[in-house]
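User: Predict the complex.
Assistant: Input components as received:
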Amino acid sequence: MDVSSMQATAMTRQEPLLSIKGLKTHFATRAGVVKAVDGVDIELGRGEILGLVGESGSGKSITGFSILGLIDPPGRIVDGSIDYDGLDLVSMDEEARRRLRGNDIAMIFQDPSMTLNPVLRIDTQLIETVQAHAEVSTAEARQRARDALVQVGIPSPDERLKAYPYELSGGMRQRIAIAIALINKPKLIIADEPTTALDVSIQGQIIYEVKQLCRRTGTALIWITHDLAVVAGLADRISVMYAGRIVETGTTADVIERPLHPYTQGLIDSVPSHATRGHRLHQIKGMTPSLLNLPKGCAFRERCEKATPECLVAPEPTLLPGGKSVRCWNPAL
Amino acid sequence: MSTPVTVSPTADVEESPFRRFLVQFRENRLAMAGLILMILLAIPAVAAPWIAPQNPYDIGSLDILDSQMPPGSVADVSGITYWLGTDSQARDVLSAVLYGMRTSLLVAFLSVTVSLLIGSTVGLCAAYFGGWLDALLMRIVDIQLSFPAILVALVMLSVLGQGLDKVIIALIVVQWAYFARTVRGTALVERNREYVLAARCLSLGWRRIIARHLLPNCLPPLIVIATIDLANAIALEATLSFLGVGVPVTQPSLGMLIANGFEFMLSGQYWISFFPGIALALAIVGINLVGDHLRDILNPRNAQ
Amino acid sequence: MRKKDRQVPVFIINRLFQAIGVILVMSVLVFVGLYLIGDPTSMLVSPEATEIERQALRKALGLDQSIWVQYLTFLGNAVHGDFGRSFLTGQPALQLIVERMPATVELVVVAMTFSVVVGVPLGILAGLRPKAPSSKAIMTGSILGFSLPNFWIGLMLIMLFAVYLGILPASARGETVNVGPVALSILTLDGWRHLALPALTLGLAKAALIIRVTRAATREVLPMDYIKFARAKGLRPSRILNVHLLKNILIPIVTVAGLEFGQAIAFAVVTESVFSWPGMGKLLIDSIITLDRPVVVAYLVMMVFFLVILNLVIDILYMAIDPSAREKVRD
């Protein structure tokens, strides 16, 4: 390897692949403005795996869709920047964004029974993904489609190519969705709870395989989930979202073993384990607040055991050594 | 500290469903316009014998010299103004339209009411008792609905002959099946709810279950269908009368008035057909605007 | 997979048997129903005719026998395509209908083509942007289109194009060209001029329905994950619209357009009466008014037969478009 390429490698290690700053995605509804994403910062290196954890309604999926530019009215990105590999995704025009989607940045959805078009054959759905981004013959695209199916471990790919989605099991459909995501060798994949709708036995397999594939191809991955246990074995780093904001970010080991934010602690304590057998499981008191009507200051304040008068003012993220960051006045330091 | 204050849904619960319905209904200007139109047409039609300038079927009051006069003409003898002109028998078109509207509304209203009663009884029975009864009734409904309404009505009328009552019977035969199918569909969903199953286990009487649980749930779709069907009944009756197999000449409806003026239209005497046509269209459109909006707000799928 | 392929013919055969059942039941209903219509001989003989003459005529027409003997005779003949002769003209009833059929079918095909060509794009437009003023205008227009009676629309078109503007003829069929035994008017300009108003009358009402179905289907398909996934794949908008959306909304559209084709043939009765279009519908009305029973019966049995076949064709088409429907056939 010559010097310049070594320099390039060094450069890319410093330059993040994706850098989101102060992202705000709001939905103007009849009842008021829903601040689904309200100031999110994410940084992701090349080939890095980030777990984006939060309960439903915390804005984690909307964050994913914002990156891809798939926010439909009444939703709109009102503030912040999304920088992907030196490109500003927010101000980019729609055609340029389309060329990135499915090519540089791919997405896997939650429910595999809904993501594949029911009236199109599997081969059509793979081939069109190739041909949307590259001028290749259908024969060549079909070959790539077949390779992609083999890559995600689908047996007898030729038969599967000719099948319709309804003829396949849920796990098989999700593998095909993953193959579609991988087919154009993207640099970033956003996976939105892709195993939630699957059987537990298949969940593990898919998580393992996706991790292997990303590692092998050097693809960065944002794995969106509500389940901390899922990302514990998968992600390099974890970001925890609550009510449209990221409340804590750190390496997987740090977040799981030494959570700083009271909400993260609550999440971890509420996961059943050997240690908690026979004991009453921890429960975060109260309910997720409505995004229409967030409490003043820290959104978690009213459910927080450590809340102090300071919490009436929304805390800014505090950067800590080791790439950690927490948004709390009273973190467990 | 208790749970944080949540959004408005709590406030909505205090409103009665009926109030909310009224508020939602008033939001749509087009539907309100339709409602006003319905009322504006219905009142003079019902009051026709008292407010019409002329009784168009009292031969004695007609002056044959006044036939086919354009709108706005003044009668030589009586001095009354024919605002909408006169037809070939010197009838005041305005009066004929008022009386015609009366006949059209009467036929539609009666036939829809009876169809609704028959249809919902059949639908509720089919849904509640199920089994072979359900299969048989729904088979009949399916077969009937697979035939174009106009053909069924034509066959009925060619069997029954002419007359106001015959037209009403034909319309009932055409319409009951729609009600039966809708009611059965809604009632079936409700019947399989756990509380109804529980009520059946407690061997509460079937009358009570049908009346207290199944029927109230069928009301919203019934209201929608009955409204829209009222317009359909008016349209179908007008069509049959236009074709000459509907109401008798002594009680012409709007459809027959239009048919009567049809031959004069090509020679430029548009008003004999045109004004009954406009009255017919306004009635149908008004009812449909209301019905269309009712469907939007009463459909549970849209309510969420 | 093999097993599934064998299910489809079984399904079709099943439906065929059902269809024959429906046709038999309907033929009894139609026949018995029309048997009750007044005495056709009174229309055929002069009022001065003696009772003996009437009897002779009844015997000649087979009306002296019991209703069931008449029905069985009718059924036996009908199987051979013999529906008796018109009381009025003496021609075979079926022949009368078949002669009039091309005019009706031509009218309906042109009207349905118009309704699909106009209705589907407008429906998609209204479905893509439900809140735009143009969409609201389309939807309000469609309410008018399907709620106003057909004859009314015809009347207004006549008033506008034939009376006021005077650019199109208001009645009759134009010049025809024989293609084999079938006379078609769509091959001549005069034919088109005469066809325009009746076809528009029938087509506008059907277009209104197609618009509503297309809009509803579009609104249902658009929020689906597979549309979002298609966008996430970076497909071009045209491909999403023309393949992912269109192929899915085609299922309800084909079903409705097919059913409406049958309805349109029936509603041609009205349109043909308004425009004096010499089709089967005009024949039916004339026959009902003159109590020409064999022609009415033949028309109705033909219609039943046609509608049943049409339903079968729609089911087969449905399976061709919706792959998972083939699966459901197993039940």
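The mean pLDDT of chain C is 82.
Let me know if you want any component modeled separately.
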